[in-house]
Write a structure and sequence with these properties.
Layout lengths: L7 E4 L5 H12 L3 E6 L3 H13 L4 E5 L7 H13 L5 E4 L14 H22 L8 E5 L12 H21 L5 E7 L13 H10 L8 H12 L10 E4 L6
Parallel strand pairs: 1-2, 1-4, 2-3, 4-5, 5-6, 6-7
Helix pairs in contact: 1-2, 1-7, 3-4, 4-5
Length: about 250
């Protein structure tokens, strides 16, 4: 059983989907969880309430990570709550946009990189003073970083950047005893994958996978909680493909 007793954790984009599942899994494992949201304040407060009703500790923290100073403001708020110690950072918040190359705008491209790459980079930077030996950083990558899965070219590029950051962050922070890994989901039944609600979308997703069912957020949240825990203490610089055997 994954154990995070006594640990403090921040999960970005935790008001729904994979982030919500990760926050609940970490809380169940014993961590105090800061549930970050950008616009879904009400949803985040429901996650916090669910954690507290189960006997856990949680708070909702808001910040717009698409803004240049968003990570800095979030880090400052986190430090106000947890003081000088953060054990787990899960950088899950992300956005996607499907569009042919010809229809991808500069604005869309820049926003994707702002939220999916710039925000986690500077959140790590700003939280480094309170990360310590034994801390764990988990980034969220994607199947799209290693395989072509539709017209999500700019989004895929952001996840390729995340994979690169895992390698370099793990090398840089390893001497401090800080582990850095990523989880790369395939298609998961979330708002970001609404196409799975159609027969054609479901068939497309299942056609890529060795395991013939659609993933749910909890399938990914449990992997994130494991990587964040001491059970994964000898894993760093790795990307765990939690994708049901997609594109084998």
């Amino acid at each position: 059983m994954t154990k995070c007793n006594g640990k403090t954790a921040l999960v970005t984009g935790a008001s729904r989907g994979i982030g919500r599942a990760a926050a609940l899994a970490l809380a169940k494992a014993g961590a105090q969880v800061l549930v970050h949201y950008s616009s879904g304040k009400q949803e985040a407060e429901v996650v916090v309430e669910n954690i507290r009703l189960a006997g856990g500790r949680a708070e909702a923290v808001g910040a717009d990570l698409s803004l240049p100073d968003g990570p800095h403001k979030l880090a400052a708020r986190v430090r106000e709550i947890v003081g000088d110690r953060l054990d787990i950072l899960v950088a899950n918040a992300g956005i996607s946009r499907a569009a042919p190359i010809e229809e991808t705008t500069v604005e869309d491209f820049d926003r994707l990189f702002a939220v999916n790459v710039r925000a986690p980079f500077f959140l790590v930077q700003q939280l480094l003073p309170i990360l310590h030996e034994g801390s764990s950083i988990v980034l969220v990558s994607s199947l799209a970083a290693r395989a072509s899965v539709g017209t999500i070219y700019a989004y895929a590029a952001t996840k390729g950047a995340i994979d690169t950051l895992v390698t370099h962050f793990a090398a840089a922070l390893g001497p401090r005893g800080i582990r850095v890994n990523a989880v790369a989901p395939g298609v998961v039944q979330t708002d970001m994958s609404n196409f799975t609600k159609t027969d054609a979308g479901r068939d497309f997703a299942l056609g890529m996978q060795s395991l013939k069912r659609l993933a749910v957020p909890e399938d990914i949240g449990d992997v994130i909680a494991f990587l964040a825990s001491d059970q994964a203490r000898w894993i760093t610089g790795d990307i765990i493909h939690a994708d049901g055997g997609s594109k084998l």
